[in-house]
Specification:
By secondary structure, the protein is of the alpha+beta class. The protein is 30% helix and 29% strand. The chain has a 7-stranded mixed β-sheet with strand order 3-9-10-18-13-12-11.
């Protein structure tokens, strides 16, 4: 049963070290969050799962990572400099600022109900940063609003260095920044976030087929991360609401605690991006006017080696917010169980490959040196397997240790006790069933390998 509210998830994340408010000791920064010891492990595991499925398990996708600072002209010719904005209104009574297109009632303030509002004005979503020793306003860059443009400007580099043939894709995971007017719903809408995006380059005329293929493939992947069919849906964008570059677009939506909302976007970007960077006709300066050009330096067309046909590829984009993915998998895994006799437990039933801690090794008696040393040695052996984080848990209270690991989603707990000293066996406890069995301590490595792999 998913969390009843976003507050439930926020409480768990803070209490157990998944996610903290950014700069919290100074009052925080709205829309900025830090990942704690368990949060960074969960994020890494979700990131690895995406990269594995997108790059390692396919033969038609390459991976890259771009710098966070681009030449400003990238954002000019991509259209972001002119169009990447939201309509901002301000309440003249309480001075609350709101995105007009997200207001419940555009005629009155969401905060106080006043109808005395300013006229909407464009609010630039891209964040600026200064480059160079003097901040005189003439030398600046934008922090990336999306990872896609870095992929597009490296398209030719990838083709030339890998000899890739169309259709093929370029995958990238990187940080993005947006100066959101109203960050909200915890990690759902923030000012800094990580995106997992893949641009798939296809021959015009095959784009609709590939759009449908990727739409289904991405939904299936999210199911493999633990999201249920009933909590997901695909919502196509209406034709009158498509982005300027899109032939078709839609969102895989998930039922977050605040309701159904976008988890991942699937877009048919046509040849807009590669075409825009190819056909840029305005003059631009390079290194203080050393060189001027009235055309782009690089044509991003593709020459089919079999047909000798030249064309600018169409692009099918799959774009997921990793932060939103983390909230989705946490929400889906969040389970409150009634154990009877007035007892209950909170357990995160995460998929094994996503669990921040793969196993905990617990000595039953924290003051028994022999038991503690055996548990430490076992933890070291398991950690060397390279399966993920293994935790040595020496709290001294086995019941509380089990409950703590239930809450953070640890699949298995291995307990070293007095019987271990007698017969060389240990207790294995399963998170989901709470069942306990005993195995020989020299079998623990293979047991964990079999459990996580199979």
């Amino acid at each position: 049963m998913p969390a009843k509210s976003m507050e439930d998830l926020v409480s768990l994340c803070k209490r157990r070290g998944f996610i903290f408010q950014g700069s919290e000791i100074y009052g925080g920064v709205k829309g900025i969050y830090d990942f704690g010891p368990l949060g960074i492990e969960l994020k890494k595991n979700l990131r690895d799962a995406w990269w594995g499925a997108m790059v390692y398990e396919r033969d038609d996708v390459e991976g890259i990572e771009c710098a966070l600072l681009y030449n400003r002209l990238v954002w000019k010719y991509s259209g972001h400099e002119d169009t990447f904005s939201d309509p901002l209104v301000e309440c003249k009574k309480c001075h609350t600022r709101m995105r007009q297109d997200k207001m419940k009632d555009q005629s009155k303030c969401d905060n106080c109900g006043s109808t005395d509002l300013t006229e909407p004005r464009k609010f630039m979503l891209m964040m600026k940063t200064n480059i160079g020793p003097v901040d005189d306003g003439s030398s600046f860059a934008y922090l990336p609003a999306e990872t896609a443009q870095g992929t597009f400007i490296n398209y030719k580099n990838v083709v030339d260095s890998t000899s890739r043939k169309i259709p093929f894709g370029i995958a990238q995971m990187n940080q993005s920044f947006r100066n959101e007017i109203t960050p909200r719903n915890f990690l759902f809408r923030t000012r800094q976030f990580e995106q997992a995006e893949m641009q798939f380059f296809v021959e015009p005329g095959t784009d609709e087929q590939w759009y449908d293929k990727w739409k289904e493939a991405r939904k299936e992947w999210w199911k493999e991360q633990g999201l249920s069919e009933e909590n997901m849906r695909f919502e196509p964008h209406p034709e009158n609401d498509l982005a300027h570059y899109a032939k078709a677009a839609g969102d895989i939506e998930y039922k977050f605690p605040h309701g159904f909302d976008e988890l991942e976007g699937i877009h048919n970007r046509q040849d807009f991006d590669l075409g825009s960077h190819t056909k840029a006709q305005a003059d631009f300066d390079i290194q203080a006017n050393v060189m001027k050009n009235t055309d782009s330096n690089m044509k991003l067309n593709y020459l089919d080696p079999q047909t000798n046909k030249s064309y600018i590829p169409f692009v099918i984009e799959v774009a997921a917010g990793l932060n939103r993915g983390i909230i989705a998998v946490l929400n889906e895994a969040y389970t409150e169980e009634d154990l009877g006799d007035g007892k209950s437990r909170l357990v995160l039933k995460l998929k094994k490959h996503l669990s921040p801690i793969k196993a905990a090794v617990i000595p039953l008696a924290r003051n028994n040196e022999e038991i503690v040393e055996k548990a430490k040695a076992m933890k070291t052996r398991l950690q060397k397997l390279g399966l993920g984080r293994i935790l040595f848990e020496n709290s001294g209270n086995i019941g509380k240790a089990y409950r703590r690991h239930d809450e953070v989603g640890t699949p298995l707990c291995f307990t070293v006790d007095f019987d271990t000293l007698e017969d060389g066996t240990i207790t294995v406890r399963d998170r989901d069933t709470m069942e306990q069995i005993r195995i020989k301590e020299d079998e623990v490595e293979q047991y964990l390998i079999n459990y996580l792999k199979g």
